[in-house]
């Protein structure tokens, strides 16, 4: 049986980076840039005031106080009409262009308005001009973002400033989510005898959303070949199909069989990990399928370890796999299983570094327990004392 590390390598080996698409800027947010972005203008585009105050000539404030005639007012959005002659200044608001010839802007709090309409400059510091010179941030034609840049809100703002209302980003995979199980009832229903609410469709859709990836809900397939076949066929039309449940050893765990009948090549069907030993990964003509263990915690762990990096690679993220952190265990732990155990834990940053406190849960169905954790700690067979150094994988959701 392969380990989780090898499973991830296999998944990434089959995950293609998708083609570039040109998108309106707002839709590109959260994506990865597939082109170099250059600026069509200087930034700032003009010598700009950083303060509400007065544009003055440096020579006019060499001796203080200095009384200067105000020749015009420059709110943001106006262009100065006149250069400054000796003995004059212009009222200049934050974000407005300074007057030609201005050496500095005197903040309004360092001035006094005189009764004759002139202004008295009380203090001036020629070392602090309060002027942002044209082009000091970006020069026209300069590359502002390279291929592979992740478009966080700040990159989106930069692209907006340089005139890019459409940008090429790598296409995000379209995902389909399918829950399986006779026992599943909708969230709005009160479960009858033997029934349980479908938690996995909600969690997987939320996981995709947290990755910035669109996902469609294919609902629930019954544990019956015909129903599974139809819904799996629909899911295989997407880039990635996520099936939960129906992958273990029970008589009604039909997912691997139906996938194979549909022409899916199964790359692995079990992984030496806990939870999530029955985890299936396959592909058909470049489309990928995950069969995640049905217990809700197992589904979430499977997504975090295998699906998330896969989706991130497909959307062109330069860092598809999150680096584990090193943490100090705050309580002893013991693993009797040969499988790599992903122990829910509370990860905290403390003065001496990261600490991880294992969260006790009642097993892979215990969502209430699992919700107390913000990370998984990676444990191998053996005993760990309090203080032991372990790897931790924080959730980003
Ligand atoms: P399975 O992998 O289908 O054998 O399911 C393992 C366990 O997970 C069973 O207790 C199922 O009832 C439960 N389970 C499967 N799918 C879901 C789901 N969508 N929501 C909540 N629990 C589920
Ligand atoms: Mg089932």
Description:
α1 (4-14) crosses α7. The strands form 8 sheets. Strands 7-4-6-5-9-8 form a 6-stranded mixed sheet, with no helix packed on it. The protein has a 6-stranded mixed sheet with strand order 16-13-17-21-20-18, sandwiched between helices. A 5-stranded mixed beta barrel has the order 22-25-24-26-28. It has helices at residues 4-14, 25-28, 153-161, 200-210, 225-235, 255-261, 296-314, 367-370, and strands at residues 20-24, 37-38, 48-49, 53-56, 66-74, 88-92, 104-107, 111-113, 119-121, 131-132, 143-145, 166-170, 175-180, 184-185, 196-197, 215-221, 240-244, 265-268, 273-274, 280-284, 287-292, 325-329, 333-335, 340-350, 353-358, 375-379, 382-384, 389-394. The protein is an alpha/beta fold and 397 residues long. The model has no long low-confidence stretch (mean pLDDT 97). Bound molecules: adenosine monophosphate and magnesium ion. The site of magnesium ion has 6 residues, from loops.
How many β-strand stretches?
28
- Ligand list: adenosine monophosphate, magnesium ion
Taking pLDDT < 50 over at least 5 consecutive residues as the criterion, the unreliable ranges are none
Mean pLDDT: 97
Distance between the termini: 30 Å
In the sheet with the most strands, the strands line up as 7-4-6-5-9-8
Q: What composes the largest sheet? A: 6 strands, mixed
Give the number of helices: 8
Rg is: 30 Å
Class by SSE composition = alpha/beta
Provide the β-strand percentage band: 25-35%
Oligomer: single chain
């Amino acid at each position: 049986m392969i380990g989780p590390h090898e499973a991830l390598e296999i998944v990434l080996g089959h995950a293609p980076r998708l083609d570039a698409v040109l998108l309106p800027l707002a839709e590109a947010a959260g994506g990865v840039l597939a082109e170099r972005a250059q600026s069509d203008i200087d930034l700032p585009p003009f010598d700009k005031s950083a303060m509400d105050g007065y544009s003055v000539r440096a020579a006019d404030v060499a001796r203080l106080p200095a009384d200067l005639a105000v020749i015009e007012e420059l709110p943001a959005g106006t262009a100065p009409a006149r250069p400054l002659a000796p003995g004059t200044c212009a009222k200049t608001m934050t974000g407005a262009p300074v007057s030609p010839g201005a050496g500095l802007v005197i903040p309004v709090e360092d001035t006094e308005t005189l009764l004759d309409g002139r202004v008295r400059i009380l203090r001036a510091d020629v070392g602090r001009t309060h002027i942002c010179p044209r082009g000091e941030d970006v020069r026209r034609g300069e590359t502002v973002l390279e291929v592979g840049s992740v478009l966080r809100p700040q990159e989106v703002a930069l692209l907006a400033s340089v005139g890019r209302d459409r940008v090429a980003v790598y296409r995000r995979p379209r995902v389909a989510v399918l829950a399986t199980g006779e026992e599943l009832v909708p969230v709005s229903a009160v479960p009858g005898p033997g029934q349980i609410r479908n938690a996995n469709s909600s969690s997987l859709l939320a996981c995709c959303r947290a990755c910035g990836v669109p996902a469609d809900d294919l609902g629930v397939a019954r544990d019956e070949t015909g129903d599974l076949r139809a819904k799996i066929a629909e899911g295989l039309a997407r880039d990635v199909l996520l099936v939960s449940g129906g992958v273990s050893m029970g008589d009604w765990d039909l997912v691997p069989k139906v996938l194979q009948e549909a022409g899916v090549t199964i790359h692995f069907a079990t992984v030496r990990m806990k939870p999530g030993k029955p985890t299936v990964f396959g592909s058909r003509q470049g489309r990928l399928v995950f069969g995640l263990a049905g217990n809700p915690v197992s589904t979430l762990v499977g997504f975090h370890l295998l699906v998330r990096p896969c989706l991130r690679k497909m959307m062109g993220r330069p860092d598809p796999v999150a680096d584990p952190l090193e943490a100090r265990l705050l309580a002893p732990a013991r693993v009797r299983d040969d499988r790599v155990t992903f122990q829910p834990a509370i990860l905290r940053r403390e003065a001496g570094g990261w600490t991880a406190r294992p969260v006790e849960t009642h097993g892979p169905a215990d969502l209430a327990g699992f919700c107390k954790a913000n990370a998984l700690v990676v444990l191998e067979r053996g005993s760990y004392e309090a203080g032991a150094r372990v790897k931790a994988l924080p959730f980003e959701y």
